[in-house]
Amino acid sequence: MNKNPITIEALTVLDAIDRRQSFAKAAEELNKATSALSYVVQKLEEQLNITLFERQGRRSVLTAAGRLVLEEGRLILQATSLLADKAKQVATGWEAKINIAIDSVIDSEHFFKILSEFLLAHPTIEIDIRESVLNGGWDALEHDEVDLAVGATGPVPLQKGFRAVPMQSIDMLPVISSTHPKASLAKNALAFKAELKNIRRIVTHDTAKINVARTAGLIDSQQILYVQNIDQKISAQLAGVGIGYLPRHRIEQYLKTGELIEINLDGNNTAECFLAWKISNKGKGLKALTELLSQSGL
Questions:
Q1: Which of 8, 101, 102, 235 maximizes the CB count within 10 A of its CB?
Q2: From the CB of residue 93, how many other CB atoms can be counted at a distance below 10 Å?
Q3: For residue 161, what are the CA distances in angstroms to 95, 167, 204, 276, 280?
C-alpha cells in the first residue's frame, strides 16, 4: 500500500499559510524555517501531481485543488485535535462518552437545563441519551447499555451493584378525556369502577429487553392499547382512545382546560424515581454529572 502523502504536518502547514497569507509569516507561527514549509508544500504537490498555491503579487493563494485539500484537511485537523483531548481525558479518568437512559415520566426540560450546565463545564464529553420505561432503565444499566439511569422507577433491584439516589416522586393521576363516552362517570368512583373492565386502558411498553417487563396502573380493564412512551400515551388519552395514569406535571395544562378529567379513584398513586448507576463505575464525568443532578432537586 502506498503511503498517503497528505500528513498532519502537511495539513498544518497549508492551514497556517492560508491563514497568514504568507509562507514567511506561517513559518514564524510554526517556529520553522520558510524553506522547510516550502519543502513540505513542494513535496506534497509532487506526490499529488497538482499545484496547491499560486503567487498573486506578494501573496500565496490556494488554487481550487489546494482549497479542496485544505477545507477537507481542516476537518481532519479538528478531529485529531479532539482525539488528543479525549485521550488526555480518558488517561486522567474522564470518560469520552456517557450513555444515559431517561425514564419517560421525567421532566426532560429540567433535566436538559442541568445537562447544559454540565456540558458547558465539560464540552468534550459526548452524551448519548435514550428513553426508557418502567424496568427498562434498570435493564439497560445492568447490562452496561447505559452508564446512568435517570428517573428509574422503584423498587430498586437488589444485589445488582447499583447506587440509587431517590429523586422527587412523580404524582401519577388516573385521567380520562372529556370527549370519552364514560367521562361523565369520572367523579363517581363506584359507577366508574363498575364500568372499568369495559374501558380501554392505555399502557406504555416496558423497554426492558432481558429482565422481566411489567405494567403499572389500572389493571381491571380487559381492553388494552400499547404505546411507546408518555407522549404517545397523552395523545391517545386526549383523543379519547382510553384511560390511564399520567404524570401530573405533564398534563397540568389539559386539566386546567378541562380536556382531561381526573378520575375519582381511591388512594394516591406516586411513582418512586431514582438516579442510578453502577458502583463499579468510577468515571469522573459520571461523578460530576450525578452530583449536579442530585443537587438540582430533579
A1: 101
A2: 11
A3: 20, 19, 27, 10, 7
Residues of each domain in the chain carrying CATH 3.40.190.290: 171-269
171-269 sits in which CATH class?
alpha beta
Length of the chain: 298
Q: Which residues contact 66 (CB under 8 A, 6 or more apart)?
A: 14, 50, 51, 52, 53
Indicate the CATH number of 8-91 among 3.30.470.30, 3.90.230.10, 3.40.50.720, 1.10.10.10.
1.10.10.10
Say if residues 196 and 263 touch (Cβ distance below 8 Å). no
Write out the DSSP string of 33-59: -HHHHHHHHHHHHHHHTS--EEEETTE
- Given the DSSP bridges, would you call strands 224-227 and 201-204 parallel, antiparallel or unpaired? parallel
Segments in 34-125 forming alpha helices (H) = 34-48, 64-91, 108-121
Q: Parallel, antiparallel, or unpaired for β 224-227 and 260-262?
A: unpaired
Q: In this structure, which topology does domain 97-168+273-295 adopt according to CATH?
A: D-Maltodextrin-Binding Protein; domain 2 (3.40.190)
DSSP state of 145: S
- pTM over 0.90, yes/no: no
Q: What is the pLDDT confidence band of residue 247, given thresholds at 50, 70 and 90?
A: very high
Q: Which three cell numbers stand for residue 7?
A: 500528513
pLDDT value for 18: 87
Amino acid identity of residue 228, one-letter, is: Q
When comparing pLDDT for 60 and 148, which is higher? Answer: 148
C-alpha cell at 150: 435517570
pLDDT band, residue 146 (cuts 50/70/90): very high
